[in-house]
Every structure is written in structure tokens, then in C-alpha cells.
User: Fold these one by one.
Assistant:
Number 1:
Amino acid sequence: MIRKLFQVAGPESRGPMTAQFVALIVYSVLQGAAFVLVVPLLGSLLGDDPGDAWPWAAALTVVALATAVAHYLQQMIGFQVALAVSHRLYHRLGDHVSTLPLGWFSGEQVGRLGQLASRGVPQVRGLLAHLLQPLLSAVLTPLTVIVAMVFYDWRLAVATAAGVPVMYLAYRWAVGATARADEAVDAAAAAANERVVEYVRAQPVLRTTGGGARGRALLERSLTEQDAAARAQTARTAPGRTAFSAVVLLAVASVIVTGAALGLRGGADIAELVATLVLVVRFAEPVSGMAELGAGLRAASGALDRIDAVLSTAPLPEPTTPGPGPADSSVTLRDVRFGYDDGVPVLDGVTLELPARTTTAVVGPSGSGKTSLIRLLARFWDTGTGAVLLGGVDVRDLTGEQLRTQVSLVFQDVYLFDATIRENIAVGRPDADDARIAEAARLAGVDEIVARLPQGWDTPVGEGGTALSGGERQRVSLARALLKDAPVLLLDEATSSLDPANEAAVQHTLDALTGRRTLVVVAHRLQTVVRADRIVFLDGGRITESGTHEELLALGGRYADFWRERGSAQGWQLARQVTR
Ligand SMILES: Nc1ncnc2c1ncn2[C@@H]1O[C@H](COP(=O)(O)OP(=O)(O)OP(=O)(O)O)[C@@H](O)[C@H]1O
């Protein structure tokens, strides 16, 4: 865990963390030394001449003071290092995720990243600030004591050391049992949380369908399961903790018995023996404390693993120096094969030449790879084999900045910031003047939304844009893309916002851009499809038909089938073709 801590904290934190470890080691050894000095002190006090105790008392005072100073220093260093390292970790995570492929940012990853920021990094901070000291003291202080005991009575030292492996095994067992019980409690808590959120979110459905009682029963059941897991946790962890405490007590008792036997047989100095036994009892203190550290250490170790997993994710390779950049706004795919992590091919040998300033509609059944195709154009991922070229240059030879300048993308699931409409449009170009923002908004039909809202341009859109409808959000996103003014615009039309006002706005935008930009549109609107220079029909990751609307109708293939079946519909979805 300590190796991983150094690895995750990065080279800049290595120096301060080493200083913290040195301070911790010095403190733990001094603490052990202070315990050890009690032996000669007591030995002298109980011996023939108590006056011999003075030098030992002085030595103990000096070491005790040094221990107190070391304790203060290690605490101060620990807090400072913990703060600096957690601050650094936020930066490392932020810097690293900004180099990751856009495709990495799935909902699941974003959720995990949020958890890392809100809980994982603070857990690592807690490890540095609060857990390392008791952990190192639990190991180093007893070790110092055992080494020192060899000089007083090697037999007692051996008896004490013999208990260490047994205590270690008992500790592992106790911590293992706690870990398993905690996992069950965490899983039950997560399930109960999900149910609570689901119950709240599903209120409209539950009330309108009369399913309230059933929804509540599901919630009650998960809460009961959570209670049961918490009760089982106590039952499971109690034996381990009790066994560990018992083993520590037994180890101490066996040393006391050994000491007593040695004393009775006259093999040891009684005064030193009594003092050594006091030492053994103190030895048990930091060791017993270890049982309390298990849960915190496990949580911190899990957080380190998750942070390491993010930091180890390979970034998108980029050229270090910018090359010549795209010659024009043409788009080319050359025998592109691509699949996600599960290895199932999503695009299977796609070749396309889209000349500059043309409009291409990509259509096909759900799951045929349309969204994946346009996301590859924006380099969300790199192709498995084949190449994607913008203006004749492989996207892998473009710097991030060159790619961002060349391409704008309007997603289906538009994300708006919790800011005003104006700020949301200007997000990619904060320096844009009002006239340019107004022009982009007019082209995307946002001016009409603004006119309806009491606060106009300064209307806050709420978290994620919830104050606007899906279609309105997509229009704001379109205006944002227009303001950016990239030569290639990729648009994934939202099926969820096929209302006439939105359709007219999107069409207006596309008409205004036709012949001025290279447009690639995952199309769900008939208008977009019919007016495109070229329609590409994707099925099972392959281009099965390609041409103009008239050419594809004349071909009499799947596109023509669709046209005949749904030609009069406002919006459409193609069903996956079932082949037997
Ligand atoms: N991030 C992802 N990870 C794993 N698989 C994915 C991911 N995104 C899409 N897929 C899978 O890839 C295949 C193609 O998906 P894609 O979204 O490109 O299709 P589509 O034609 O745009 O579908 P739709 O019209 O329903 O949006 C589907 O089987 C989908 O489940």
C-alpha cells in the first residue's frame, strides 16, 4: 500500500512524503526507547541503591521530551503533507483525464470520478494525516522494545517475539472478516440508496399507474436488507476483534509467566524482571490499536487502487509538435474497423469520402453504429484498424487543439451548464461579442426561446439544462457549435425532441450551413435526409447503401422499403432487420 501511495502521489510529492516517513520512524523509535528506559529506571529504584536511578530518570526525561517534540513535528508534517498530496492528487487526476479519449467519459466513469474526488482523495488524505502514524507505531515501537529487551533478558525477548506471528495471523483474520462484512454492508447500502432515488424519481409513474404500494414495498425490502446486513456485520466482526484482543492478552500473559518462572528459578534479576514485564504490557498498547485501523486502511487502499486505475488509463497519443493541419474540411474514413471493450465489431470496414462543404445523412437501424461513426470522426476513440482523416490528415496526427478547431459536435444528450442561456452559448468562445452570439442563436432558433422567457438571455437553465425542454437544449447546443464556427459540424439528431418547433429550427440551421460547412448528421428527420447530398445507410456496422435520396429509392433496397413504409411520418426509427 505504501508503494502505491508513493506511485499515485507522483514524483513531486516524493520528497515531502519521505520527510513524513522519516519523522514517523523517528517518533516511533523514540517512543519505543522511552518505554525501554523504564526498565533500568525501575531496576535502579527497586535495587539496592535507588540513587542510581537519577541518570536513568534524566535520560528518560530527555527521551520523553524528544518523543513529544517528534510527535508534534510528525503531526504537523503529516497534516501539511496530507493537504499538499490531496491537492496534488486533484491536479494529477484533472490533468490526466483531460488527456483521455472522449469516449472514456461514459456515465459510469463520470460517476466513479465524482466518487474519487468526493471520497477517494479525502480517504488518501486521511491515511496520510491520521492512519500512518498509528500503523507505523504499531510496528516500529514494539520492534524497538523487542530489540532492547535482548540486552536485558534474551529469553523474555524470545518469548515476546514468539507472540508476534500469532498476533499477526489473528490480526489478518480479524481484518479479513471485517472486510467481508463491510462489503456486504456497502452493497446493501448502495442498493438501498438506489431504491430511495428510484422511489423518488418514479413518483409520477407510481402515482399515475397506481403502483405506489409496490414501489414502497421494494423500498421497504431493501431497507430491511440493509438492517440485516448491519446486524450480520456485528455478528461477523465481533469474533475476529475478540480473538485478536485475546491473542494479544495471551501473548502478554505468556511473557509474564515466562518471566515469573525465570524469577522463581533465580535466573533473572527480580527488579529488572518486574520492569521488563511493565514494558511488555506497554508493548501491547500500540499493537491492540491496530485492530481499529483495519476499516480505514482498507478504504484508503481501495481509494489508492481506484485512483491508480484512472491514472494508468492510457491517454490519446498526440503529436508533440503541430503538423501542417487539415488542408480543407473534407472527411474520409478508410476501411475503418472499430469495437468497444467487449470486442464485438461495431464498425466493420467502413470507407467513406465526404467532400468539403457537403451534407451527409447517416441513417440505419438502432444499434447499427451511427453514433459510434460520428464520434470516431471527433476522435472519441481511435479506430482499431483503418484511418479517419480530416482535410487529408489522419486525426492521430492532429493535436487536440487542431482537432477542436476543425470539428464541432452536437450530441443527442446535450449537457448544459448551470448558467444563463448566453453563457451556455458562449462557453466555447467566451470572448464572442453579443452580435455574434445573437447571430448563432438566431440561426439555431434560440432567439425564439429567449423571447419567450421573462429573463431572456439571462435566464438560468438549471443544473444540466433541466429548465429547458430536450429540443430547446439541443438548439442551445447547436448555437454553441455555430458560434465555435468549425469547418466540420457533426450532429447527432435527438429522437426525443422531434417537436415541430425544434425540427424547424434544426432544419433552418442546416439550411443556413449547407454549402458552407461539411455536415455529417445522424438523421432522424425526413427533411434532413431528403435534402442531404448523400445518404449513407448503415446496417450491422457496414455501409450497405449509399447515394442520394432518388438514387436509393431507385435502388429499391432497405432505404426504399423504409421510405415506402414510413414516408409520411414526421420522425422515424428503423427497426433492426431480422434475418433467419
Ligand atoms: N460506450 C459504449 N461502450 C460499449 N458499447 C457501446 C458503447 N456505445 C455504443 N455501444 C454499442 O455499440 C453498438 C452501436 O451503437 P451506436 O450508438 O453507435 O448505434 P446507433 O446506430 O447510433 O444506435 P441508435 O440509433 O439507437 O442511437 C450498439 O450495440 C451499442 O450497444
Number 2:
Amino acid sequence: MMERYKLVREIGDGTCGNVFMAYNIETNEIVAVKKMKRKFYQWEECINLREVKALQKLIHPNIVKLKEVTMENHELFFIFEHMECNLYDVIRERQVAFSEGDIRSFMLQILQGLAYMHNNGYFHRDLKPENLLVSNGTVKIADFGLARELYSSPPYTDYVSTRWYRAPEVLLQSSAYTPAIDMWAVGAILAELFTLSPLFPGESETDQLYKICAVLGTPDYTVWPEGMNLPRSCSFNFFQIPPRNLRELIPNASLEAVDLIQQLCSWDPRRRPTAEQALQHPFFNVRPWVPGPLHDASQTKANESRAHPRLELNLWDFSSEPDDSFLDLTLSLKPSFHETDHANHAPQRAEEEICQYPRLENAYVKSGLWPLVSSDRPIGDVPAMPSWPQPYMVDSQASLAGYSGSPFGLSLQPNLLDNHHSLRPIRQVNFF
Ligand SMILES: Nc1ncnc2c1ncn2[C@@H]1O[C@H](COP(=O)(O)OP(=O)(O)OP(=O)(O)O)[C@@H](O)[C@H]1O
């Protein structure tokens, strides 16, 4: 069976196996062959092998496909689809932070793969950036379901996951592991995607718990009642440390991202969202930021959009001199009318239009246009701004009743101007 594969070169040397890039000499297909380091002799191990073969039936776009499993001369080989690199290398080689859109895409894929496997009764136990393989922006989870069956050696001392991504219940020797240990690892990986360095880089098991306390604060009975009775909790000297503000630790993450990390990295495994629940988190509620054409005359589009309010981000050039530039961004929320049917549908007075912002119950907002002003800029320093043509007139009092912050997580200020030029944004992005 293995004579069908020609090994090209070694691409990975893990604790349990050596991984080779190889090709199938019959089909020329490039594959990854993992040869387990330990030898397999006993009958129970053959039962395990049957269970491992069952993994071949699990197929998902975000799980590295296990094509074949075979044993020859007491040596065990796994044939996987081949992937370009792993997320650890991608993070290490990265010079600048990933955009939140990139991170969202990685997370979405990881969680979809996890949800599929958890729903099929498997959990990983050793999720870490090295086990997340990447090819052309697609992320796939490697080694799913193998840890439990094969990575522990007789007398089957429990296999433990890589320290930095290890959940507190594993560190404190709980006997009942659940898929929530994978969710902890996902939280740590999500934070690392923002900062490009590990969230809990413990240097020993004790230091690992210390590093977690230093970020989340020391747990107590209110936070994690069961945890306080775990075998090692009694002997472990929980340092009394207050929690850090995750927003300060991960300054480039949105509020939604920080909230998701906080939920995933809950001390109590029962408080962590499942993979399916995490996929419903507001962090994923963003439509892709696809720049739309400025003048789309398609009637169908106009009809579709008419029923909904629109959120637009516009880049303006407010300079008065031709070879000068003075750029600013505005965000506008407004009832939707296509430019071509202003004459028929535009209301006489924009202030009469009311849009509902879906995440704020009973909160209504008038159509509005706001300059996006960075928080360090004085309020009175908003530049003179031309407003929209008449149908999109700015309501300078636009605000959300009873809501002091911005509904979009941005610093919004009412438009100060009424200097109407027939200026158009130089760039426009439609959100919905
Ligand atoms: N299908 C694959 N395609 C390309 N590269 C792979 C593939 N599978 C594994 N590798 C590479 O080999 C490395 C080691 O593989 P893997 O993590 O499966 O070994 P391991 O023995 O489980 O190691 P450890 O237990 O230390 O994680 C991976 O980090 C990855 O770089």
C-alpha cells in the first residue's frame, strides 16, 4: 500500500509523527504522509485503528481530509490532503497585524470545522496554530479525533494538549474533559491572531495557571464553583490577582472580538460558548466590506434596497484647491432610495424618515450623516462639510434616544454643517 506513495521531503516533525510531502505515483496527487513514531503491536490498538479509520468518513471543508490509514510492519501511516503551511508559520512571518476581516474569516472557518466535529462526537484536545493548516486563505483543522485514540501510549496516560492553549480544567486535572477545552484554545488563538503573540505563554504548568490568572483574574466560587474542588486546585496556590482589561491587552480588537475572546476564555467550561453558539456571536455579524459602485442604475437593486435603511461609509475630499487634499470619512444611515428614483420617491423632508436600528430594542434613529472623528480630536474641530443632496439632508440632531455611545462602535458626532455643495464622495462603501 505504501509503495503507491513516493516521499518527496519531510515537512514536519511533531511529537508523535514525522510528516512528509509525497505523491501518489498512480494519480500524481500531492499528499501529506504522517508516519507515527511509535510502533503498534497490540490487539487493542487495532480496535483503536478501526475507530481512527472512521474519521475517513468525516468530510468537511475546514477539516484536513484523512484519505487513508494503513499499518505496515507495525508502523502506522496516515495519508492526508496536502496543505501549504500552518497558522503558526503564518503568524510568525507576519510583520503587520491582520485586519479584523482576515481574522474573522480564519475564525469562521475554524469554528465551522469545530462545530462539525463536535456535533459528530469528536473533540480535538490539541488545538494550536501548528494544527491549523492554511492553503490560499482556507484554514483546515488537522489531526482531529486522533489525539484521544493514538497519541497516548500505554498505559494510556492521558494525552495533554500543548501548554499555551491548554484549558484550566486540564491544568487542574479534571477527569471530565468536554469539547469546551477546544473552545478555550480557540479563544487563545483568536487573541493571538490580533496581537501576533500568545495570550498565555506559560513556561511550566504552574506558570501557565499564573499567566491565566494574570489576564483573567483569580477564579473563585462565584466564577467557577466546580473548579475550586478540582484535584490540583487544593494544592495550587491561587495568586490573588485582579483581572486585566482585555481591551488594553488587545488594543486592535473590536469590542465584539474582545467580548468573544472573553467568553471563550471563561474559567468555567460550562460558560464557554459551543462552536455553534460562537458562530452566532456579533463578531460575525458583519457583511463583507465590498465597495459598491457609486452609480448603480440597476432597477432590481433599487427595488431590493428600497425597503431597508442603508449604512454607507464615504470618503470625501474637502479641499478647496485642486492639488491639495483634505480627506475625511463620514458614516451615513438613511432610508434607501436609489439615486435614479429620487424624483419619485425622495421624501420632502428627510427628518420625517425613521429607521430602526435592529440591535437596540425600541430605539429609533432618524436618517443621519456623521463625520467619523477620532476620539482624540476636539469636537469643535470638525471640518466644514458639504452635505448630501436635498433628499439625503442631514438631520443635525440625529442621535439614538437613550443611547449615548455609537451604535456602530465608532465615535459619531452630529454633522455640523449645512454648506451644500454638489460634492460626491470619492469612495463609497455600502454595508446594507
Ligand atoms: N496535511 C498536511 N499538509 C501539510 N503539512 C502538514 C500536514 N499535516 C501536518 N503538516 C505539517 O507537519 C507539522 C507537524 O504535524 P502534526 O502537528 O500533525 O504532528 P504531530 O506529531 O501531531 O505534532 P505535535 O503533536 O507536536 O503537534 C504541522 O505543524 C504541519 O506544519
